[in-house]
Design goal:
Layout: H1 2-5, H2 8-51, E1 57-65, E2 70-77, E3 84-89, E4 94-96, H3 102-108, H4 110-113
Antiparallel strand pairs: 1-2, 2-3, 3-4
């Protein structure tokens, strides 16, 4: 029985594909986690440039809209007391802070989420 588990067909048919699937899953999900972190960094940089501040920016309640081409959320700077809303267009790198604008309402309004 021990000979059977160490034979070449067992290694080629069972062990190699399992290792390949695990490596592929790690590559896909690891790449997604790195991509999400870079988008958060882009949003924080855009907010810092728009607000002309160098203080730390905290992001909360991030939600992808437009099939991943936009992100709605809330931010808070170290200097402020409360959170403010924003919309970030990831395709164009455009930030909208005006919650009464049509762009914000069309992407981040309650009807857009449902």
């Amino acid at each position: 029985m021990l000979f059977m588990t160490l034979s070449r067909p067992f290694l080629l048919m069972i062990i190699v594909p399992v290792i390949g699937i695990i490596a592929l899953a790690a590559l896909i999900f690891g790449g997604q986690a790195i991509s999400d972190d870079s988008v958060d960094g882009e949003i924080q940089q855009a907010l810092a440039a728009s607000l002309d501040t160098s203080s730390a920016i905290e992001l909360q309640h991030l939600q992808e809209v437009q099939y991943g081409y936009g992100i709605c959320g809330a931010f808070k700077t170290a200097d402020s007391d409360g959170f403010s809303s924003f919309f970030y267009d990831t395709a164009r790198g455009r930030l909208t802070l005006d919650v009464s604008s049509s762009e914000y309402r069309s992407h981040c309004g309650l009807s857009a989420i449902c």
